[in-house]
Write a structure and sequence with these properties.
The chain has two helices and five strands, in the order βββββαα. It is an alpha+beta fold. Strands 1-2-3 form a three-stranded antiparallel beta sheet, with helices on one face.
């Protein structure tokens, strides 16, 4: 699920992120992660893609551009972490009923507890960042978004 956030100061940048990982390996396993940045107002931004070197360079001019870009990257990191944790959690839940090995089953249950703790930390940090923009957001690892 793609989530977006507008970060504003003297300029406005919108960041969007989504992932379906973990999928069990490299891109051949179907895992995809997408990051988008959109200038909504007054952002001094230049992007250059070097196809031969497979290199993307993003140049921002100005102090507030640095601040909004920093907050976009922070949102992207936290949101991708949240989605990745939730996806792994759901994969484990879906597989628990088919696990015959009791030792492995207990390890998976322990991993679920670890994921719940990680999720709570990430969500707390994400909500702090989003508070000025989306004060009513509430997340749960268990339900739909």
């Amino acid at each position: 699920m793609k989530r977006e956030l507008e970060i504003s100061s003297c300029n406005i940048l919108k960041v969007g992120v989504e992932t379906n990982t973990p999928m069990g390996g490299d891109s051949g396993h179907g895992g995809r992660t997408i990051l988008t940045l959109e200038n909504l107002a007054s952002t001094d931004i230049e992007c250059e893609w070097n196809n031969e070197a497979k290199k993307l360079e993003i140049q921002l001019g100005g102090d507030t551009e640095c601040e909004t870009f920093r907050d976009c990257l922070k949102f992207a990191y936290l949101e991708l972490s949240r989605q990745n944790i939730k996806n792994e959690y759901n994969q484990i839940i879906d597989s628990l009923s088919s696990i015959d090995n009791e030792e492995f089953r207990q390890k998976q249950k322990q991993r679920l507890k670890e994921l719940e703790a990680e999720f709570e930390t990430v969500v707390r940090d994400l909500q702090k960042l989003e508070a000025a923009y989306n004060p009513d957001n509430r997340w749960t690892i268990y339900g739909n978004e």
